[in-house]
Every structure is written in structure tokens, then in C-alpha cells.
Design a protein that fits this description.
The chain has one helix spanning 2-14, and strands at 26-38, 44-49, 52-55, 60-74, 79-89, 99-105, 113-127, 131-139, 142-153. It is mainly β and 159 residues long.
């Protein structure tokens, strides 16, 4: 009986008003990085997180990068969703077409939540000018995260 009471208290806490599980989808990790992978145990491996690109010339070209996400889903999130990634400049305009990822969420019968990793690898990302940018992440029209990014020219040495 004591064990059942302890489990029940944990479930109450997990489902309490203060729990992230009551918010629906929750982006636990949202980063721009050099590379990311997921292993067979659903561990998200992230290499080289950054928020600034130092450009020797403009437009700046980032040869390779990735957006790494870890999102937690609760019971109310089951069904079809569409994740959207938008690279946005300081004026709010996209610098590349939006990237869309359709997914279907089905929680196992014995689970209170489900965490999924998403890795989007990007090649030759072009930034037309120095300034502020963001990677805006949404799911089915709901904002999940905004990853800030700045592009700065490398200062040239003065003679």
C-alpha cells in the first residue's frame, strides 16, 4: 500500500499545474550547432552549439550546421502535427524557404509522456548581411522556440 501511495503522489506531481507535461508540447532542447545525431537509445548528441557566425566576407556562407530539437509530448498532443523551421532576418523575413516536418504522435499505453529528437542538417546556409537572425520553431502553428543568431563580420586589421 505504501508503494502505491508513493507512485500516486509522483503521478500527481507529474500532472500538476506546475509540470511541463501540462503545457502540451515542450521544447526541452532547441539549438543551432555544427552537427547532431541520435543514437539507438534515443540519446541526442550535439556538437558545437553556437549563436554567432564570424564572417570573413558578406554574404556569409555557413558550410554546414544543424538544428537540434528535443520535444516532449503529453497525452493531449497525440495525432498529426507539422513542425516548421524558419530562418528569419531582423526584419522578420525568411532567408530560406520554411522547412516542414510532418509527424504523428502516438504515446505508448504505459507512458505519461514521449520525448522525440529532431535533427535537421543544413548545407550552404547563406546570410546576405551582418545582423540578427533567428531560427523560429513551431508545431501546428504554435511557437515552440526561437533560437537567436548573429552574423558579424571579422574585423580587418588596420595598418
Amino acid at each position: 500500500m505504501y508503494v502505491q501511495r508513493k507512485i500516486k503522489l509522483k503521478e500527481i506531481r507529474a500532472n500538476s499545474r506546475d509540470s511541463c507535461l501540462n503545457e502540451g508540447m515542450n521544447a526541452q532542447v532547441a539549438v543551432l550547432c555544427d552537427a547532431a545525431t541520435q543514437d539507438s537509445n534515443s540519446k541526442l548528441n550535439i556538437l558545437g552549439v553556437f549563436d554567432t557566425i564570424y564572417a570573413p566576407q558578406l554574404p556569409a556562407i555557413q558550410p554546414q550546421c544543424a538544428v537540434a530539437l528535443r520535444v516532449t509530448f503529453a497525452t493531449g498532443d497525440e495525432g498529426q502535427h507539422k513542425f516548421t523551421l524558419n530562418f528569419i532576418n531582423a526584419d522578420g523575413h525568411p532567408i530560406v524557404p520554411a522547412m516542414e516536418i510532418p509527424i504523428t504522435i502516438i504515446l505508448p499505453a504505459d507512458a505519461h509522456f514521449l520525448s522525440l529528437n529532431f535533427v535537421v542538417s543544413i548545407q550552404q546556409l547563406r546570410f546576405p548581411e551582418a545582423g540578427l537572425y533567428s531560427v523560429d520553431v513551431s508545431a501546428s502553428g504554435r511557437s515552440l522556440a526561437s533560437i537567436p543568431l548573429q552574423v558579424k563580420p571579422i574585423p580587418r586589421p588596420t595598418a
